[in-house]
Prior knowledge:
The structure is a single chain. By secondary structure, the chain is of the alpha/beta class. It has twelve helices and ten strands. The chain folds into two domains: 6-34 and 146-296, Rossmann fold (3-Layer(aba) Sandwich), CATH 3.40.50.1100; 36-143, 3-Layer(aba) Sandwich (Rossmann fold), CATH 3.40.50.1100. It has helices spanning 12-17, 36-50, 65-77, 97-104, 114-117, 123-133, 148-153, 155-160, 176-184, 203-215, 238-251, 260-272; strands at 6-8, 20-25, 55-60, 80-86, 108-112, 137-138, 167-172, 190-195, 222-225, 281-286. β7, α9 (176-184) and β8 form a beta-alpha-beta unit.
Amino acid sequence: MPPLILSPLAEPLAERAGVRLLLARDDLTHPELPGNKWRKLQHNLREADRLGHDTLLTFGGAYSNHLAAVATAGRLTGRRTVGVVRGEELAHRPLNPTLARAAADGMQFRFVDRATYRRKQEPALLAELLEATGPAYVLPEGGSNALALPGCAALVPEIRALTDFDILCVACGTGGTLAGLLTGLHGRQQALGFAALKGADFLRQDIRQLTLAGTGRTYANWELRTDYHGGGYARLSPALRQFIGEFQHRHGILLDPIYTSKMMVGVLDLLAKGYFRRGSTVVALHTGGLQAWDGFGGL
């Protein structure tokens, strides 16, 4: 993989706040699986090999970057992939660009109603799915499990090799990336998560459970902001679209419409409010997800 790039962001709000603001371009570190998705998958793929599974079964919504990533990983590694998609099949036909890309990469879909989807972690439902699809290595929604953590944690020393920093900011869907980053932070470094989902208070407990499962401990050096969701998951308001366009004009960097853009709205708003300590270095993480633009007609 190419080395990580840190892009300085010359934002007037950061300059007035006395904060050094950088963007970690993890969206550029894998040619076909950019961002946090590859980091979450790499140790899970090794475990699938260890267990002798050549099929991956996972879960996601209609615009899931995770589904697209698993499908791509399946194509690249010669694995069969099955995606359990939230929502009735008729509601997703014709396939949106995210699902169409996953299908082109060979993913087979099983559409389930929302009530059934909420049971995705129940052993009875998993057994039913595996009976229908055949043996498979099961990846949770978003790829967030204990094996996802070390892949995400590895990003911290990559950043530290380029610069000292105080706070690492990341967008959150299922919380797995934030949980992994926590396990890699040292000393007084902190992480700040920005939930892309509306009503995401439950993520705090999910993140604690992930770190407990992965490392046997919980962490206190983090905060989750739930007030920058922009109306909810996959909601692209005119204001957010305008923000993304203006950000691209200023920096030449395209943000995704679901995750990183909301994080950057939050970071800049917190800079304006004096949230970050003067003299600190804040690194925001671009986790990729640009394929989602196909579903929104582009910028």
